[in-house]
Amino acid sequence: MFPSTTLQRRHAAPARAARALAVAILAVALLLIGASAANAAPGSIEVIDRGPTLGHDVRIQLPGGGSTWEDPGRSVIQVTPSGGPAYEVAAWCVDTARSIAGGTVFPVDLQTAADAPELAGPGYAQAAWLMTRADDLIAAADEPGFEAAAIQVAIWQLTGQALNVREVTSDPALNGRAYALRIMAAGRTAATTLALSGPEGGLTAGQPGVVTVTGTPGAEVDLAVVAGSATLSAARVTLAEGSAQVAVTPAAAGEVRIRATAAGGVLWRATHLPHRGSPQDMGYVLPTTITAEAALTAQAAPVVTPAPTPVAVAPVTTGRPGPARAALRIVKRAPRSAVAGRVITYRITVTNTSRRVARGVVIRDRIPAGTLLRRLPARARLDRGAVVIRIGTLRPGATRTVKVWLRTRPRLDRTVRNVAVASASNARTVRAAARTAVRPVRAAPAVAPAVTG
Fold first, then answer.
1. pLDDT at 425
2. Three state DSSP letters for 38-60
3. Three-class SS of residue 174?
């Protein structure tokens, strides 16, 4: 945690005069866009954590001339939409002209591209893609603080908050990594729509057919055969122009089901209110996994030379038939006790205990009262107050474990009961609960001040 004082923006002296005119121009611009901002949803934000960061200030060159000194990195904010439940999310600065204070609640407008058209532009779209990949990139990095700083610098450049040059900061290594991240994000965006369609005439066993993937331009899509027997010409495609084609070759006649999966989410910007100098604007994406399926029918290949039909002999079986459905078991673990204001880590394990493949396995973990979502696990989304994690196919005996992180309210003083549900398209729904006794931090006894004289 960082102190609940303003995160100061230290501008170089020559930049102050140059930016004074920019502030006046900005005030006029705010009046011009007032009608657009009026459509935004009111709400509030509060910075509750910051990190990882670079750990020291570096000079950042600004587009209009001059520079600012920053310690770039990731923040965690609590967002409270007006009339809606609060949630926590990783957020990134998209405004180098303002500062933000930790521990202070700021009224803001919560905007999407429907409210602010610039959020639909290529720069913000690529920044949104980086935001959806940030957790994985930071977790895999040898120096998480350095990686978070490079992501923030790249986001500043993509959103027009830092100068679009290779040597944008005073740290050469940071410049190189930020440039690599921008190359990685070029032409990509977080997915918001996804669809699959097969050939009009269907498929023929042993012959390739074309499946078309459509969706958000720039989205990366993973493809897999989830039912039937078939091979795909590619397991991942990029929707450069909003569509891509993949060849599928069925091995035999029957139904073939193909699933497309893309990491997505809607880009939000928490924007300062007009005529207010703080907070800085923060951009964030609530990550979600978007899926689409196509069920295709493969016809048998035409028979060129019919073979003689052998005499069929019905097999004789004894004993009871095997189970017609899969079976799941779910176990949920959590600490027995926790301190209010801290994060509780839940481990949810789902196992296929049957001899059948469990298909379409989904874990649904409802966020209990008194807690806030710390961050979403991979391949998860928020749905009506619950974390939904799509596991997909689970083979007999296979086990998957996921983690969910919830932060307790600062003054919570009761037991939190968290229930997780696992379901599949061919298995009964199972449940598991975990209880954690949460107690507030005990205040130290007051010490009377010394009195002299």
1. 87
2. CCCEEEEEEEEEEEEECCCCEEE
3. helix
Q: CA 293 to CA 332: how far, in whole Å?
A: 30
CA 323 to chain centre: 38
Residue type, 100: I
What residue type is assigned to position 375 of the chain? R
pLDDT at position 34: 37
What pTM did the predictor assign?
0.57
Q: What does the alpha-carbon distance between residue 132 and residue 97 come to, in Å, rounded to a whole number?
A: 24
- Chain centroid to CA 324: how far? 36
Q: Are 410 and 354 in contact (CB under 8 A)?
A: no
Higher pLDDT, 442 or 357: 357
The DSSP line for 385-411 is TEEEEEEEEE-TT-EEEEEEEEEEPTT
Residue 382 to residues 188, 266, 330, Cα–Cα distance (Å): 23, 12, 20
What's the average model confidence in pLDDT over 85-89?
A: 90
Tokens of 183: 């190359």
192 CB neighbour count, 10 Å cutoff = 17
Contact 258, 223 (CB under 8 A): yes
